[in-house]
Amino acid sequence: TAGRSCGDGLLGAGKHCRFPEGLLLSHSHHRAALVLSSSSAYKRFSELLPKEERENARSVRIPKSHILTLPELRANPFQHRICHVFSTSEAGDDSMSFEDFLDMLSVFSDSATSDIKSHYAFRIFDFDDNGILDRKDLEKLVNCLTGQGEESRLSSAEIEQLIQNILEESDIDKDGTINLSEFQHVVSRSPDFARSGGVQQ
């Protein structure tokens, strides 16, 4: 077994290295309270703009580099995927409109349902945007969560064991991938996901 990563709680507790507990977007040290009201979101959005652009905040897009300065994203291993998933930019630059920004804060808030959080978590973990979590997605997921430092880096055998454990736990139809309904089924059985909010800062 991949005892090192199972034992430290990164990818779940107990024998099975279960899917949801460690695969939540909760690795930032900043637990800022996100208020869902449009006015407070608008204030935060406009503060990311240069002063001369703030009056027209509703009609401008904020570059990804500015979004990544938010405390909620700064230490999040999935920061680039989060920007990608919530951005509606036709240019593909992951910039955000105010509506995109509001959607992101809404999903991060305590008010969002477990279904909404798990839907967006699935999209964030689907690195190639093909609608399923396959072995490549799961390998990237494990690497994001365990980091690239010498102490936390897993061997290829440990990564393979973790992926196998995740698939055994989650791949109900045994096709070698995890679809959205399988992911949500596993998440629905995890009290940790519901309590912590799944996709969170």
Describe the fold and architecture:
The chain is mainly alpha-helical. It folds into two domains: 36-111, EF-hand (Recoverin, domain 1), CATH 1.10.238.10; 113-200, EF-hand (Recoverin, domain 1). It has twelve helices and no strands. Helix 9 packs across helix 10 (156-170). It is elongated. Residues 1-36 and 194-201 have low confidence and may be disordered.
Q: Which helices and strands occur, and which strands form pairs?
A:
Elements lengths: L2 H5 L11 H4 L15 H10 L16 H4 L3 H4 L4 H8 L11 H11 L5 H12 L9 H12 L9 H15 L9 H9 L2 H6 L5
Helix pairs in contact: 3-7, 6-8, 8-11, 9-10
Structural class: mainly alpha
Tell me what portion of residues adopts beta-strand conformation.
under 5%
Using only CA atoms, what is the Rg? 18 Å
Number of helices: 12
Oligomerization: single chain
CATH first level of the largest domain: Mainly Alpha
The biggest beta sheet reads:
none
Determine the CATH topology of the largest domain. Answer: Recoverin, domain 1
Domain EF-hand: 113-148, 158-193
Protein name: CIB1 protein
Keywords: Calcium, Magnesium, Metal-binding, Repeat
Organism: Sapayoa aenigma
